[in-house]
Specification:
Length: 416
């Protein structure tokens, strides 16, 4: 094929009839451009690499990088009959299919079989149930049959079915053997050929005494853990609880005992003067109890006569927000408000119907905007103030209306 292509190229270069004024040029570029563009040449179309001198011929379907090169150099003649090896730019002499010639040509040594066919075990050589011995190396790929043992370069018989891993040569096989523990290995005299049980001597604890945890003599007692015998338990169980008799304690004197006396074993009365009081145990009089019971509670309805109702006041200089809780304060004062003010809805308190809440805001030298939460309304014909007056006081009085659950502005004044 190369000879044909070269002949075509030479013929095209020397054609003169009718082409004297014509120029024939092949597609050409440097090799890197051909590779990056990777075009598909038309069938019979030639593409030349100008920097390597190599060229390819298209087949109409194969991209450039998948096409083979045609050599631009001299084309060697074919060798004689037989098998020849390409050098890349020519051919070596042919070799006949003879193991002696192959041995000589490639230094493969003397082989007893021409053609290097693999040795296959016959029925007489290996029947799959016994062992087979060979003086040469046998790879895993050359091992046919269903036998379970292979013997040769390995000193001992190896159970083939127990070998795992990728074994392709003697080195791989040896590495597999090196990773196994021999069944002749022992642990303190116990062979690993079967499951073994070790004792404390085997693991270096021969000098440690065995402790019987059920023997009371091996248990260390302390003040909270003492053994008693059955006689002691019987004596203690036979003891009666001490109960005061009428003649022992008549309720007017003192009685001293070295042991504890439970309430169940105490009869009679105790003189209060003999009782030690503390912060959680105090005597009170009947008069104290009567006075306390007469005081109003948070849920009771009482009439106060000549009593002062002092308002609770939250007084600060200036804040960005006020979140008024009627359970804590009644009046909220800002004495020099220097920020726009947001009056939020209450969050934790529960106003009662008719309760009032007052805001007193004294502005600094700048008017300040006032905004409100949705719980503040003007239902009494008075508009909610939206700004303070510079250096003036603004007062607002709200009343809680349970029917609408909102604070209604009932009064608003602005300092003149």
């Amino acid at each position: 094929m190369k000879r044909l292509i070269l002949s075509i190229l030479i013929s095209l270069c020397f054609i003169s009839s009718g082409l004297a004024a014509q120029k024939i040029q092949f597609r050409r570029d440097v090799a890197a451009t051909w590779t990056s563009v990777n075009p598909t040449l038309a069938s019979g179309e030639i593409g030349l690499e100008t920097d390597t001198g190599k060229f390819k011929m298209g087949d109409g379907t194969t991209a450039w990088t998948s096409l083979a090169y045609f050599s631009a150099g001299a084309i060697a003649s074919y060798p004689g009959a037989g098998i020849a090896v390409s050098t890349g730019s020519g051919w070596n002499s042919s070799i006949t299919d003879n193991h002696s010639n192959w041995d000589t040509a490639y230094g493969w040594g003397n082989h007893s079989q021409a053609g290097y066919s693999k040795y296959e075990f016959g029925a007489n050589d290996f029947n799959g149930t016994g062992d087979f011995t060979t003086t040469s190396n046998v790879s895993a790929a050359e091992y046919y049959g269903n036998g379970s043992h292979l013997e040769g370069v390995i000193a001992e018989e190896v159970e083939w079915s127990k070998i795992t891993g990728n074994i392709s040569n003697q080195t791989d096989l040896q590495e597999e053997f090196n990773s196994k523990v021999s069944n002749t290995t022992t642990v303190n005299g116990h062979a690993l050929s079967a499951n073994i049980t070790v004792n404390k001597t085997d693991i270096g604890l021969g000098n440690v005494s065995d402790i019987d945890t059920t023997n009371p003599a091996n248990i260390t007692q302390d003040s909270d853990h003492r053994f008693v015998n059955d006689t002691e338990k019987s004596d203690w169980n036979a003891k009666a609880d001490y109960e005061f008799g009428a003649h022992n304690f008549n309720g007017t004197g003192n009685f001293t005992t070295p042991g504890n006396i439970s309430a169940g074993n105490l009869s009679g009365t105790i003189n209060p003067a003999n009782v030690t009081q503390d912060t959680t145990h105090r005597f009170v009089s009947d008069a104290n109890i009567s006075n306390w019971n007469a005081k109003p509670t948070t849920s009771s309805t009482d009439t106060f006569t000549n009593k002062r109702n002092q308002k609770r006041i939250d007084s600060q200089t200036t804040t960005n927000t006020i979140t008024p809780e009627i359970s804590t304060y009644d009046i909220f004062v800002r004495s020099a408000q220097a920020h726009d003010l947001v009056i939020n809805n209450h969050s934790t308190s529960t106003p009662a119907d008719g309760e009032t809440m007052e805001f007193i805001i004294l502005s600094d030298a700048t008017p300040r905007a006032i905004t409100y939460g949705d719980k503040y309304v003007a239902k009494s014909g008075i508009a909610l103030p939206t700004t303070t007056v510079a250096s003036k006081c603004t007062k607002m009085l709200f009343q809680w209306r349970a029917s609408i659950s909102q604070w209604d502005l009932i009064a608003s004044t602005q300092e003149a």
